[in-house]
Design a protein that fits this description.
heterodimer; A: 401 residues; alpha/beta; 14 helices; 12% strand; B: 167 residues; alpha+beta; Arc Repressor Mutant, subunit A; Alpha-Beta Plaits; four-stranded antiparallel sheet; two-stranded antiparallel ribbon; 5 helices; extended
Chain lengths: 401, 167
């Protein structure tokens, strides 16, 4: 007798949308000689001093569990870092949890604050997992589409229009993946006013905070009146080039932390000991490396934005992260058609904008976390590709579709 | 001399690859090509940019294999001129590719390139050792070059291990 597995699986799990980049990944991974602008992580390897310290920790036998919240020594470094960089004060003892990637911090935050039916405002285009994480925690994601003409920044009016009596929290991500948009202090303050007025919480994903180029970065928790209402999420992945280590952390008022730590001790126990020791080294002795990588990204951003605009793909200058989000509307193709054709014809991989929400349609995400030589070659190829489209009649374009 | 962020970035770009066009540099720094040309000229004039050598692996070319030796040289310093005069006599030889004054048990570190070990041995015995005030020499032949001027010559350190697409 054959089993119908649909009957055995959780309905919630079945109904989760598959990630929009999956299909595209399979296609790109099957091809040789691809220049990829589709990578959501640094091209730098973790600085050597951090790797060395983690190796020594492993050699010295640091292989046991740690406290659920992570090593106190690491949490102390984290609170010192948050104070130094973002001017926010947390206690290492009861206001920080070290998690397995910032993704797990997000998961913990939603599990801790959401009751069934609670709504979370998700500002799109957004990181692929946000909406699903809200759903898995029993909440309802409410998507708000930002616009290119606003630099993909959310406006207070848009927030007001989306808020209902079920709204529990706003999920912010600045600098943003996939648009690179960075919100300044004034813009965050406008959001804060809405948060106060409607008595909301904010889950602030600040994983790209180290990569803000044009002005000093402002953490949402540093906005007056927001500390009490913010679950601040950060980690080592992007700024320190430590994606594969899976180390993130969250800070919040202890009333949130005490609930989250309960969930965390049952689901995960703790982050790996030897990697936590590496993370201590990252916070203590790596600011020169971090700054050097940031300068590198900044140069590549400038180069990429100008190249794309020269090619004729309109591209705003994003304030942070390592993504640009140019419009491909002029070409007459959809995001997926553009990305697929570009991959087939020129072997350049980008991610179709609609993978980050419906409002990403008409755009592509290009990551500039790759060498300048590769970027130059990729821009040449994209230029050749868009030229080849211009030559096509609308009939031929139909064929491409 | 203090440099501004733009100048430091130009050095960082050129240090990695001096063939980058001024246009590409200007685009990366959000400035004009004229400004980049002007700043590079300034850095050259100040001898902060000393020259633009190319790192060549001659050993890959048949018939061009080279032998490299690093020689520790002890010297009796001379009145008034110290080590400079001896150094000058040594660095004039074209087979000398680098020369440093060192602290520690010897004084000058000389790097010499030749076609064969014999050629280098002859250089040391006939030329180097016979220079007045050179007290002794210790010759170390280089067996393998792993890293040179910050560049890893062989190895897979720069291999991209990332997945082609990730969120």
């Amino acid at each position: 007798m054959s089993m119908n597995y649909q009957n055995y699986l959780s309905k919630t799990a079945i109904d989760i949308e598959p990630s929009g980049i999956r299909k595209f990944f399979d296609l790109a991974a099957s091809m040789e000689g691809v220049i990829s602008l589709g990578v959501g992580e640094p091209d730098f390897v973790t600085p050597w001093n951090i790797r060395e310290v983690a190796m020594e920790a492993l050699q010295d036998g640091y292989t046991s569990y740690t406290a659920n919240a992570g090593l106190l020594e690491l949490r102390e470094e984290i609170t010192a870092y948050l104070k130094r960089k973002f001017h926010v004060d947390y206690r290492a003892e009861d206001q920080v949890i070290v998690t397995v990637g910032a993704s797990q911090s997000l998961d913990l935050a939603f599990r801790a604050i959401l009751n069934p039916g609670d709504e979370v405002l998700v500002i799109e285009p957004a990181f692929v997992s946000y909406a699903s994480l809200v759903t898995l925690a029993g909440g309802v994601p409410v998507r708000i589409a930002t616009k290119e003409e606003n630099g993909f920044k959310i406006t207070p009016e848009q927030l007001e229009a989306a808020i209902t009596d079920k709204t529990k929290a706003i999920l912010l991500c600045s600098p943003n993946n996939p648009t690179g948009t960075c919100l300044n202090k004034d813009e965050l303050t406008e959001i804060a006013n809405v948060v106060l007025k409607h008595d909301l919480l904010v889950v602030s994903d600040e994983i790209y905070a180290e990569l803000a180029y044009d002005q000093e970065y402002t953490s949402f928790a540093a906005i007056p009146g927001m500390y009490e209402r913010t679950i601040l999420i950060n980690g080592f992945s992007k700024g320190f080039a430590m994606t594969g280590w899976r180390l993130g952390f969250l800070s919040a008022p202890s009333e949130f932390i005490s609930v989250m730590i309960k969930i965390y001790q049952y689901t995960t126990m703790c982050a790996p000991y030897m990697l936590q020791i590496g993370a201590i080294e990252a916070l203590r002795n790596s600011s020169d490396h971090v700054e050097k990588m940031k300068q590198n990204y900044w140069r590549r951003r400038n180069f990429t934005v100008q190249s794309l605009n020269k090619i004729g793909l309109d591209c705003h200058t994003p304030g942070g992260a390592f993504y640009v989000f140019p419009s491909i509307k002029k070409t007459g193709l959809t995001s997926e058609q553009f990305a697929e054709e570009l991959l087939q014809q020129e072997k350049v991989a980008v991610v179709p904008g609609n993978a980050f929400g419906a409002s990403g349609e008409g755009y592509i995400r290009c990551s500039y976390a790759t060498s300048i030589e590769q970027l130059q070659e990729a821009m040449n190829r994209i230029g050749r590709f868009t030229k080849s489209l211009e030559g096509k009649t609308s009939q031929e374009l139909e064929k491409v579709k | 001399m203090k440099l501004n962020n733009e100048e430091l970035n130009i050095l960082s770009i050129l240090e990695e690859n001096h063939k980058v066009s001024t246009e590409a540099i200007a685009m990366q720094l959000q400035t004009s090509e004229e400004n980049v040309t002007k700043l590079i000229k300034k850095l050259e004039d100040e001898k902060i940019i000393v020259s633009y050598p190319t790192l060549i692996d001659w050993n890959k070319i048949e018939g061009n294999e080279t032998v490299v030796a690093m020689i520790d040289v002890k010297v009796t310093p001379q009145r008034n001129v110290g080590f400079n005069e001896v150094a000058e006599q040594i660095y004039r030889y074209p087979e000398v590719t680098s020369l440093y004054l060192m602290s520690g048990t010897y004084d000058l570190s000389v790097t010499v390139e030749g076609k064969t070990m014999k050629e280098i041995a002859l250089f040391v015995s006939n030329k180097l050792a016979s220079i007045e005030n050179v007290v002794s020499t210790t010759t170390h032949f280089m067996l393998k070059k792993y890293k040179h001027d910050g560049v890893i010559v062989e190895g897979n350190d720069d291999k991209d291990r990332r997945m082609v697409i990730s969120p």
